[in-house]
Please model this.
Amino acid sequence: MSDKNGTVGGKPDVEALREDIKQTRAELGETVQALAAKADVKARAKEQVEVTKANVKAQVHDATEKVRAAAGSAATVASEKVAVASEKVRAATSQAGDKVALAQDKVRESGALDKAGEAREQVRRNPIPFAAVVAAGAALVGIILIVRGRRK
Model:
């Protein structure tokens, strides 16, 4: 039978030994590279920095997208509110115009403008009664002030 080297009768097979050595060298090379990578603090720090940079860039991109979405929705809401407000202003303006027109009609119907015009013409024709009314009013105000001054 063969022993653990794969030889028959106790003599090692040269080819099998060479293959075994070759495999051991390859495994040893991989182990040395792994140990060197673990021992290379500078390279590991650079890798960690690159990973952290990638994470931060992703977070910034996500935050930027969220801000853009929020700004877009805020602009939409604002434009909708402006449209509603402008419609309310239009309606109020229309109502105010209607009320002014109604008031003008009522003034015309009541004849207040005609009466005011007649009073103006009467004062122009005969200013003395108007001046007498103004003088009487001034005298009344003067008397009231004098009486109040004496009471104090």
About this structure: The CA atoms of residues 54 and 139 lie 93 Å apart. The chain has a mean pLDDT of 83. The helical segments are 14-39, 41-110, 112-125, 127-151.
